[in-house]
Amino acid sequence: MCTLLAKIQIHPGKESTFEEVMAHMYQQTHDTESGVLRYEYWRGREAGFYYCLLSFENTLAFWRHQASDHHEGEMERFGECIAELDLEIIDPVAQASPLSATRAQPCPETESVEVQAQAEAFPIALENWWRPLRVQ
């Protein structure tokens, strides 16, 4: 499994455009991708801040999502809205989340150049402090 949390700051006045793009991305992601467990957007407490919870069956499904036509096709409009993005790999707490532990895996050489580029851009690294707390 691979779970991430994105904190996204939007340029002032771009909130409506961002929400329109994210509604399209949400629909396309859930309609066309396999391996998606959670992919949802939330408005935050601070003006112009959003969060995205992403969880996939494995890292390969995440990288394929990143390389998907609908994701790449919206990058220009997405990029125009984003002031700052912090994408953090997170790990569910056993018995306090329905999700399984985040696992790192290599990207198979048989994957497309686009997916391999996403694997290089978004490596999945587990934090050392998590290891003794995880249920194996």
SSE blueprint and pairings:
Elements: E1 2-10, H1 15-32, E2 36-43, E3 49-56, H2 59-67, H3 69-73, H4 75-81, E4 82-90, H5 113-121
Antiparallel strand pairs: 1-3, 1-4, 2-3
Helix pairs in contact: 2-5
How would you describe this structure to a colleague?
The protein has one domain (2-133): Alpha-Beta Plaits (2-Layer Sandwich), CATH 3.30.70.100. The protein is built from five helices and four strands. The chain has helices at 15-32, 59-67, 69-73, 75-81, 113-121; strands spanning 2-10, 36-43, 49-56, 82-90.
Comma- or semicolon-separated keywords:
Alpha-Beta Plaits, 5 helices, 4 strands, 25% strand, globular
Average pLDDT value? 92
Counting structural domains, the number is 1
String of helices and strands: EHEEHHHEH
What is the CATH top level name? Alpha Beta
Approximately what portion of the residues adopt beta-strand conformation?
25-35%
Structural class: alpha+beta
User: Residue ranges: pLDDT <50 for 5 or more in a row?
Assistant: none
**CATH architecture classification:** 2-Layer Sandwich
Determine the number of helices (DSSP H or I, runs of at least 4 residues): 5
Query: CATH fold name, please?
Result: Alpha-Beta Plaits
Q: How big is the Rg?
A: 15 Å
- The amount of helix comes to 25-40%
Physical arrangement of strands within the biggest beta sheet: 2-3-1-4
Backbone shape: globular
The largest sheet, given as strand count, sense and whether it forms a barrel, is:
4 strands, antiparallel
DSSP summary, beta strand count:
4
Straight-line distance between termini: 13 Å
Short description:
The chain has helices at 15-32, 59-67, 69-73, 75-81, 113-121, and strands spanning 2-10, 36-43, 49-56, 82-90. It is an alpha+beta fold. A hairpin with a 5-residue loop joins strand 2 and strand 3 (49-56).
